[in-house]
Amino acid sequence: MTFRKRLGKALLMAGIAPVMLAAAADNQNFHNAPAAVKNVKSPLAGQAGAVQAGGKLFLAKCRRCHGTEGQGGGNTPALTRAEVRAATDGELFWFIANGSEETGMPAWDNLSDTERWQLVAFVRSLGGKPASPAPAASTTK
């Protein structure tokens, strides 16, 4: 194979690879949650009481591994990272219920549905404050 053909093939693959990787990433569900849960909405979304109740549950059940504010540490991931923020309510609920032997996350299927939705509400509240815009530079002297 000539240099020109090898270069052409390499450039073609370099152009295709990012598209293929992006497509594969789009098809990934949070921790392999079934597609059926992807569009499930939380019945407690937007309820401040759910966030508060979820916070109490979080401190009792999740703090040991995820830290007081979901910051993680060691091998335990932060719950404020992009992957968690991008997960749907249904995917978070499913993951809380089923856990993962692979990651060491316990299954919290002994909690009621309401309690698991409260945890989803609390996780959604972590790091959820939008960044404040930088103050405008003063133009007066």
Describe what you observe in this structure:
With about 140 residues, the protein is mainly alpha-helical. It has a domain at about 35-125: Cytochrome Bc1 Complex, Chain D, domain 2 (Orthogonal Bundle), CATH 1.10.760.10. The chain has helices at about 5-25, 50-60, 65, 80-85, 90-100, 115-125. Helix 2 crosses helix 6 (about 115-125) and helix 5 (about 90-100) packs across helix 6 (about 115-125). The chain starts with a helix and ends in a 16-residue tail after the last helix. Mean pLDDT is about 80; it is low at about 5-25 and about 130-140.
CATH uppermost class of the domain at 33-125: Mainly Alpha
- Tell me which CATH architecture of the domain at 33-125 applies here: Orthogonal Bundle
What class would the helix/strand composition place it in? mainly alpha
Q: How many helix segments? A: 6
**Which range best describes the helical content: under 10%, 10-25%, 25-40%, 40-55%, 55-70% or over 70%?**
40-55%
Number-wise, the strands total: 0
Q: Strand count, sense and closure of the main sheet?
A: none
Head-to-tail CA distance between termini = 69 Å
> CATH topology of the domain at 33-125, anyone?
Cytochrome Bc1 Complex, Chain D, domain 2
**If you average the pLDDT, what whole number results?**
79
Strand content: under 5%
CATH superfamily of the domain at 33-125: Cytochrome c-like domain
- Unreliable spans are 7-27, 129-141
CA-atom Rg in angstroms: 21 Å
**Run of helices and strands:** HHHHHH
Basic shape: globular
